[in-house]
Write a structure and sequence with these properties.
By secondary structure, the protein is mainly alpha-helical. The protein contains five helices and no strands. The protein has a single domain, classed as Cytochrome c-like domain (Cytochrome Bc1 Complex, Chain D, domain 2), CATH 1.10.760.10. It is globular and about 40 Å long. The relative contact order is 0.18. The N terminus is likely disordered.
Length: 128
């Protein structure tokens, strides 16, 4: 059963990326979140890919499927020292393999532009 869950966590981001191609990013309606096209796209990508493990928005449709707690995007945004560059580095380099426990974040398989957009979306959640 555990292997099926792991395979699902790998398959979900790949499927979501395949779906991203022709869909425009919807505008974000969260109060206080600056909405630029890139931030809105990052929120859209986060809802499709990252929400299976993280709470990416207070109003996301479904809760994360993981049993273990992961930080919310708002918590990540408000950590001291978090920058767009540190987020991009984490998203692109912190990946787990099936044999390594405890699990770390799987590779979301995002393009550079998608990684940049998600990073900007996360930073947009920072309390001012």
């Amino acid at each position: 059963m555990r292997v099926r869950q792991i395979r699902l966590l790998v398959a979900v981001p790949a499927l979501a990326i395949a779906m991203l191609g022709g869909f425009p990013a919807p505008p974000l309606a969260a109060a206080g979140v600056p909405t630029t096209p890139q931030v809105a796209r990052g929120g859209h990508i986060a809802r499709l890919i990252c929400s299976s493990c993280h709470v990416v928005a207070a109003d996301q449709e479904y809760p994360p499927i993981l049993n273990q707690a992961t930080p919310t995007f708002a918590e990540i945004a408000n950590r001291p020292g978090v920058t767009a560059e540190s987020l991009r580095r984490f998203i692109t380099t912190t990946h787990w393999d099936v044999d390594k426990l405890p699990m770390s974040m799987p590779n979301p398989m995002l393009t550079q532009e998608q990684t940049q957009a998600v990073s900007l979306y996360i930073l947009s959640l920072r309390r001012h």
